[in-house]
Amino acid sequence: MRGPTSTSFANLLNRPSPESGSHQDAGLPDARRRRMLFNAGALCLSGLGLAGCAGGRKTSSPGALNRPPAPPPSHAKPSAAPVPALRPGAKVAIVAPASAAPNASDLAAQWLEDRGYFPVIMPASRTRLDAPYEYLAGTDAQRLDDLHAAFAAPDIGAVWCLQGGFGSWRLLDRLDYGLLRQHPKPFIGYSDITALHLAMQRHAGFVTFHGPMLAQDLVAGKGEPTESHLLAMLSGQIGEGAWIQPPPDGRAMELVAGTASGRLVGGNLALIAALIGSRHEIDTRDSILFFEDVNEALPRVDRLLSQLAAAGKFDGVQGVIVGNFTRIIGTNLDDAQAQSLLYPLILEQFGARGIPVLAGWPSGHGDPNLTLPLGARVTLDTARAGLRLDQAVIREAVG
């Protein structure tokens, strides 16, 4: 019996589908699919929409440093190691590895104080570069120094991203993964922060958290269980054997029924695709793949999925979770309705593979934003519309 939060794709469409009789025929016929994509509108560019104001530091190039050799390719472990629990009263580093939100760091600090933590505002989170690098919170060196200092400090209990935007990928070849391995701790963020999640999964080997960011989600007041679920997971209250499920009014949709186990990997679809061919690309072997995005058009989502398929990134996938896709370009529908236009594209890629697919999962740019422990081993159950943690993601803090 399906859980109360699970809705089948056929029921969503409210009509029988001649293609739904088998997984191999689950995609739309070519003519209908082309017509659907044409009606969705042409691909267009979205504005940066960055928070904050000018007042940063001028620079001719934010990346004008000698680049050390990038780490050699490494193979992901079967599962990532748990990280120390975030204790009440612990220090939390506020970092901005990507875009600027200079006015938000103090609000984020107050949010943390109100919940019993001691905020440590890292310098780059207070600044913003001038054009043409106004999308960056400080130079690459400044943002990198903030990350290294936050991980190296023994009294910092977690490294929490202020917001996403653009620019995290610029840091990957310079990040000291040996330092991170020596000082594992909760690292929280999503969207553009996906680049850091993927690199850390490749080279550092501990669980990281695809979860709400301080300015972009928590100060902005995203609904429950966005906050409570995250804090419960970071404190170790959600442990091995626990189920992660959408809230009762969530609308998870069972596109392909089944159960599957694997390492939970993924994040923002555009960032996952952008890193293909690099040393930091996603490792999907024996995985439950999660992806979400914002401000994308249907043809571009189609292209991103096709790129990953052509790169062989779906070959080792055991199950799929499709997260929030919000503000889909070219539609006049609300987010919940617009997301259903994606499902034929999803089924075209995964239906014939016979692997479970659960869509409409509330993680990413939507509201609420459930935290996911990347790198951890999980079991996906589409009928239950949930994920079971098959390992601990938090261990007792040392010291």
From TrEMBL:
The family database entries (CDD domains) matched by this protein are listed as: Peptidase_S66
Task: Provide the alphabetized UniProt keywords.
Answer: Carboxypeptidase, Hydrolase, Protease, Serine protease
This protein's record includes keyword Ribonucleoprotein: no
Where in the numbering of this chain does the LD-carboxypeptidase N-terminal domain appear?
92-211
Task: List all Polar residues biased stretches.
Answer: 1-11
Per the record, which residues fall in region Disordered? 1-27, 56-83
User: Which part of the chain is the LD-carboxypeptidase C-terminal domain?
Assistant: 261-380
Q: Does the keyword Cell division apply?
A: no
Q: Determine the domain of life of the protein's source.
A: Bacteria
InterPro entries on file: Carboxypeptidase_A_C_sf, Class_I_gatase-like, LdcA_N, Peptidase_S66_N, Peptidase_S66C, S66_fam
Q: Which family does it belong to?
A: Belongs to the peptidase S66 family.
Q: What is this protein called?
A: Murein peptide carboxypeptidase
